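In this section we walk through a basic example: taking a raw amino acid sequence and producing a predicted 3D structure, encoded as discrete structure tokens. The instruction is simple. Fold the sequence below.
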Amino acid sequence: MGSAMISPLSKRVGFDPQKVPVLSVDDHLPAVPMDRMHEWALKDRFQSPPVWKPELVQERAYMDRPVSRAAVLLGLVMREQPMVLLTRRTAHMSTHSGQVAFPGGKVDPEDCDFRHTALREAHEEVGLNPQQVEVLGELPVYTTGSAFVITPVVGLVNPRFTPVPNPKEVDEVFEVPLTFLMNPAHHRRHAHEAEGVRREWFSMLYRHGHQEHFIWGATAGMLRNFYRFLSAA
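The resulting token sequence is shown next.
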């Protein structure tokens, strides 16, 4: 993924988002019902979407630069329970190193649409063949503080997919249960003020065995919007 997944704060020297205190947790909100996360229900929702509004659409701008378009794949691996496909960026990347992100990146001139961008990038980053993805639709764009306008493309991923991470960009490919991410009891709010500017974001901390995955910034923001989409009446 190109710079589209950078959070503005991540560029600050010595800034560690995991050390910023949790202000609150949204455990007062209901989780998405399990029956809305079945394959047929997800397809129905995209074919006949409810009336809803994304909660997060734009971060505070911190960079004066032309807008760049990007797309990511919010891939749902259809196992016994649906899992969300995520990556951890390599530590040597010049930007957003070590961060959790969806596969994705900047739109190339030869890309015919955002779906093509998301699938091409997923193939390049984690070896996911586009034929193993059934695209359901797109979520509203999410604009980062660095002027990247990201289109999240939602698709069902064949569970027989075997990830092959690109070592130049991806340290790890992993999955998180959709039920965990669609439960606001795991949506934590943070805020940080620097140079007179207050920035706010969500995080989701997923622990599995001895592993810990800290999801925050743009990735958490798009997941929060997905929650709003699936929970809308």
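Looking at the output, two observations stand out. Helices lie at 39-47, 114-126, 178-181, 217-231. The domain at 3-10+21-231 is CATH 3.90.79.10 (Nucleoside Triphosphate Pyrophosphohydrolase). In the next section we compare this with other chains.
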